[in-house]
Each structure stands twice: as structure tokens, then as C-alpha cells.
Amino acid sequence: MKSMPWGLSVAHVPADRSGRWLAGGVIALALLLNSCTSSSADGGSGSGQTATALTGVTNASVSFVFFDENGVQLNSTGVTQRMTNSVGASILSSGTFDLDTLKALTLNTSSMTSDGTWTTPFAQLDTIPHQGLMVHWDTADTGYSTFLIDNDGAGFSAPGTYVFNERAALDARRHYLTSVNARPNYTPSSTFVAQRQAIDACFVQLAAATTQSSKGALGQQCLNLLALSMSTMMREYGKQIALTMPDDHAFWGVTINPGESGGIDTDYAKLQDLVALFAPQHRWVRMVMGGTGSDNFALLTTLAAWAETNQIQTLGQLFDSSAQASIPLATFKKRVNKALTYPGIEKFTAWEVGNEVNGGWTGAQMPAKIAYASAAVKAKFPEKMVCLTFYWYAMQDTLTASLFNWIDTNMTQAMRDSIDCVTLSIYIDQQPLGFLWDMVMTKLSTLFPGKKVMVGEMGFINDPTVKTFFKEGPLAWTEPQGAADYINSRYLSAFATPNAVGGGFWWYYDSEMVGKTAKWQALRDTYCSVYPTLCTTN
Q1: Which letter does DSSP use for residue 443 in this model?
Q2: Residue 24: other Cβ atoms inside 10 A
Q3: How would residue 359 be classed by pLDDT, with cut points 50, 70 and 90?
Q4: Which of 207, 269, 464, 487 is in the most buried spot, having the most CB atoms within 10 Å?
Q5: How far apart are CA 264 and CA 444, in angstroms?
Q6: Using the 8-state DSSP alphabet, how is residue 113 labeled?
């Protein structure tokens, strides 16, 4: 589980969320008020046009103007509200990215004038020629996403001014078509076909638009349609792939925290509800090893034995990320050794040797801990699957924590060879993913060829003590509506990308699903939509 620093000063995250906090990553976007005159919303000059790259140029600044669905130009307040779900400038996040690697190059270097003109500087263009901009933005039916603005894939290498909504739509259409074309075996529903037709019609109108206002309005409308259709495809294709996978290759899982509240009967109740949730061949539980004493290991091995008897496959998490910063490497090694030699620990089906490892709260020794734990597990249990979980960060914290930066810097070949699957922890309440789900998960699979890819942890936050800013789904939806749709969308999407085997591992299972709650039923309904015959016998 994670937490996130937002605003201009470090604040406390309640311990019942995870007890984590990052010292760095303060985010603020300069609002250079009254420093420029306002752009005209009616002029077509420079709108959505691609500038010609200048030979020898190493730096270039590109500007964007923003509109809503009705063609009304947004001033700085309007842009800020739209990008932050009305929270404010303290959580504005943006970054420039290398389009070839998806590594972050700069974070939060953009500026904005009072009329809403956003300017992003691109640097080192002589050595990194293909650069794009990532931002958070919302669409009508799918809520908040991270979008990559990349100028038709060529990147921005010369000064220019663009209508943001038009440029975002044009780039999103190319990303969307890349995803569609990568799935020739996808059987689309009539809903998807109708969405494709609406998208094509929208872009015909956008191509004919002549003013910035009309380009902004139509661009946003086309972007809305693209985001909705991408979501439809990922759900449908994920469902189709899950249904055709061999039984023991499809992972449907939740996370439990043994001993966190109540006695062992409480933990048995969690597992009993899991037995009723999924069929045996797909049924996985991720157990968090929160303690290191003999009592804790005794509880874990007792539960692992019960799980084995009741046909639950178990993923043992070797200590949550929330504890890592406070554990020196030498102590960590002792705890790993104790865990792996404790009688009955062999009952665990698979192992997770690091959780949310690129999170800034885990400490500088995280790579060494991964190297030790992965090698130790493989030496002790060479036949068991070893997983490593990353955290979805793009531009919300620091360059070093950004997902693909961290992987490139820290993952040695020996570490890669010691793991069998990579998973991603995703919390959209503070770090939206949405439309870029396919791009990010596909990139993860290319960096770890031959490895299984899973969603290692997620949730749809409903906790008044936690700062939540974003969500997927229409913003007017209630929390139960949004959570049910998110469960359906992302448990299915977890099968839709290369080498994907599902997972999910809902973090808040203990508090939100045990007792066969509405969220439990939403997950059950999602599962049964894929395997209806299994649900008649389970």
C-alpha cells in the first residue's frame, strides 16, 4: 500500500493507510499571472500545427491553450481545476518524457499565464530528440487518466502553440489505433463497433474545424470517445483472453493482512469468503508478512496450510513497502532468512520479494534488498514463482522514482534473472493511469521479456482519512458506482496486455469485501461474467 506527498509541505499520512510518507517530491506549478496577454480563442493561426524542427536546436518551448467541450477557453484557474479535479495548484503534475523509453526527463517545469496559456520547455533535444508531455486530464465517461502528448509520435523539437484538446485527441487516436491493431484476435462487440464509428465521425468534424474554439471543443469530444472506447476494448479483450487461458495460468487474487485485527478466526473468515469468490483453479491470496516474530510466522504458516487444504494458492509478500525504510539491509537479510527457514513456510505457492520498490518511501537500500531476497527465495524454492512489484509513478514525485527511470537505473540482469513475474501497484486516487494502461503495461512486458505481468495491488479509495484527488468513471458517480465499475474494468484489463495473467490483489479486501459486501459482489460478478459455468458449481 502507498501514500503520496502533495502540496507545499510534508503532511502526515495516517498509519492505518500505510504509515508511509515521502520527504521529497514537493509539487508546485508556477502560475505566472499577468505576465502575458491573452490568446485569442477565435484565431486559427498556430492551432494544432506542427512546427518544423530547427537544425542544431537543443531547447524549445511549446505552448498549449485549453478549451472545454463547449469551446470555452479555460483561464489558469479553469485549467488548474480541470487538471486537479478542483483540488488546486498544489497537486498539478506534469513532465517531459523520452518517447523511446518512457523515462521521465523533467518534472513540473511548465508555467502558465493568467489566460491559461501553458508553456513547457523541452531540453537536450540534440541527444534526446523525441520528447513528449504527460499530464492528468479527465474525460466525460472515464474520469481521470494520464495522457501522453507526443506530436504524432515525433515529439516536440521546435517552438509552437497548440490547442491542447486537439493535440491530445490526435495523439490519443494514434495510441488507440496502435492498441487496436496489436490485437488482431480481438472480437469486438456491437458497442465497440458503434464507438469506433462515433470516433471516426468526430475526427472528420475535427479536421474541418477552423477556429481554436471549435478545435478545442471537438478535440475534447473526440478525446472523450477515445477514452471510452479504449476502456471498452480493454475490458472485452481481457475477458476474451482470460477465458482462453489454461486454468492455472489465470490469476484472480486479493490481499489479506493476517493478524491485523481480531484473532485467527477473523483470518479464517477472510479466506472462507475467498473460497466463495473464485473457483479453485484461479483462486489466489496475497498474504502480507507484517511482523517478524515467531508468533507472526506461526500464524502465516497456519493460514498457508489452511489455504492449501481449501485449494487457495498463496503469494507470500516478504514485508510490505511501508516497513522497508526503517529496516537496515543486515536486519532485512536476517528476517528473510528466518522467514524462509520457518517450519511450514514451504506451503506458500509463490513469493513476492519486493513491493512498490520504486516508491520514494522505501529507502535507498531497496535494490540490494531485492537482489538478496530474490536470490534467497530462488535458492530455497527454485520451483516456486518469484514476483516483484513496482509502483505506478510517472511524474508525481521525483525523477528517480518515476517507474521506468527506476527500472533502468536499478534492475540488474541478475535481479531480472531471479524473478518470474513483474507486477504493478496502481492507485488512481493520486496517480491516474486510465487511458495509458495498455501503453504502460505493454512497456513493462517489453522490459521483462518472458516474464508474467500482473496487477500486483490496487484499490478504489473510500477512506476519509486519506487524501484522494482522482478517480476513474464519471465524476458524478457515487463511490459504490465508481468502485464497482473500477473492479470490473481493471480486473478484466489485467489480462489484456502482453504476457498478462491478471492478478488484481485488492488491497482493501479485509475491510471492504469480507462479509460478502457490495464490492465483494462486484468482483464476484466480474469473475462470473468470464466463467459463468464455474459459478454454477462454486
Answers
A1: H
A2: 12
A3: very high
A4: 487
A5: 38
A6: E
